[in-house]
Amino acid sequence: MKNKRIAVIAYHTCPLSDEGQEIGGMNIYVLEMSKMLAKKGFIIDIFTRCQDNKSEKIVEVCPNLRVIHLVAGKSAPIEKRKLRPLIPAFIVSFDKFVNEEKLHYDIVDCHYYLSGIIGLAIKATYKIPLFMKYHTLGIMKNLVARDEDETEDIYRIKTEMHLARQSDKIFANSRTEEAYIESLYGARKDAIIILSPGVNVELFHPYDKVTAKKEVGAPLEKKMILFVGRPEPLKGIDTLMYAVKILIEKDPLLSLSLWIVGGIVGKNIDTWSKELKKLESLRRTLSISSNVHFIGRKSQEELPSFYNAADIVVLPSHYESFGITALEAMACGTPVVTTDVTGVADLFDKKHSPLITSAHNPIRLAQKLHNLLTDKKMYEKSSKEVFEKVQDLSWSKIADKYISVVNKCTTRSVL
Predict the structure, then answer these.
(1) Which residue segments constitute the domains of the chain, with CATH numbers given?
(2) What is the pLDDT of residues 166-177, one digit of tens each?
(3) Backbone angles phi, psi at 73, to 5 degrees
């Protein structure tokens, strides 16, 4: 029996990219899952829109895995909503590639609603099952949107609802997301599969905190609170900064610093993103400039040093489909405090209450952080528990669950 071949659609962002503002959990998910599936014998082609004329059309990532850059419009970064009119051109490029290569795929696996639109066309043309993963839900983003820039339009909402009815399988990050997709989007319950992201346990693992602090240049005498992610309003970084201010006022003897890893941070603040500028203004207003540090984006290979250097990692999000950074921190044995609206919160039960806070609540967050930083027994217990919790979430185990779904949906091998 020949190995199954899967066409993965990541239309708006290339999983190999290390530039731009769209680097996040989706890229990590697509690349790491694809690598593991390829390792287990599947043939994976990831199709993404070419954003740079210098990009190679086909990149051989590893045996059985390629990333294919298809031309659709100008080969340059384009804002997501402006990519919609280019979808037909992308589909034409896909069809041309498939026909020239004489390929047959067993599954089309789509990431984000824009890719889902492409997946619908591929499903109809090639008569193969459509797998869908939203990564974020437009309806949920609108429920917590804090400004017009964060609000999703009716086109996205209607498209996601249509995909919920037309997809053969929909992968939800958590029980909460499953409930939203079923109740708000009208998907069949038997079409939804709960499959959380995984974590690279070979890359992310615990090691000596003093060594890690020296690697990142963090003061040994200070407690280090860490945020990792794209600086945007939904992430709740401002709430975390308010909590740090409260901690400083509550316990002046508690020497601490907040490190914000993410975004593009240059010497010229005028080049910073709108959200980073707002956070910088808030840092000055709260008089915590000496305690809060904007570090900028770091590669996956650099992040283990930051997670191990940190005393606590915080996900203060107002909405987070899951939160891969939490898994990475947990794999390093670093306690994670997260709001109860993140997908990763589903991993915790009542005994993990010290690690769960509520969104928009800097006072409660400050109390959670203070308890962990000042109670050695609680801290050590939390560190041990999060490390043990994440061991069942290696990419190998997550891929095995995915493969079981593929095998049920396909009855013949690739030609």
Answers:
(1) 5-198+394-409 (3.40.50.2000), 209-392 (3.40.50.2000)
(2) 999 999 999 999
(3) 80, -165
